[in-house]
Amino acid sequence: MSAEALTATMEKLLKLHKSLYELAVKKTDIIKTGDMDGLNQMLKDEQAHIAAISRLENEREKAANSIAPMLESPTVSDCLNILTQPDRLKLEAITKELAELVYELKEQNFLNQQLVHHSLQFVNVSMNLLRPQPESMNYGPPANKKSEKMNPGIFNSKV
């Protein structure tokens, strides 16, 4: 494999991440509307994207190993130091765009996580309002009566 293979793999990774970001934006709207069927389908689509990204990541590792076999687990940054100027510039641009996209995806997923969390809080509050409150199952006098302090009896008094 060569620099072209690494660049092609990185371009595919970028394309898949763009698609995953678009799914995350759509998921925000689905969460807002409360469409559970749509959310389930969206999660399946995301899982398919993640599996494809994982396969491409393995290809990227192989391509990086072929460019920098002297390193144990070469990164794209390690490969950039080895590549020639034209290949390096193209790969740097793709890497930078991918890093920015991953950051945006992370932010969008954080927003989705917050929306789901707030939705669950709302459901819990609604459920608590609808459920009857359980009565106390403690032994002893009822809570509304004041307990009277008993005077020590004859047998408990000091001589």
Automatic annotation (TrEMBL):
UniProt keyword annotations, A-Z: Bacterial flagellum biogenesis, Cell projection, Cilium, Flagellum
GO biological process, one term: bacterial-type flagellum assembly
Annotated region described as Disordered, given as residue ranges: 138-159
Domain of life according to the entry: Bacteria
Protein name: Flagellar biosynthesis protein FlgN
Protein species of origin: Cytobacillus oceanisediminis 2691
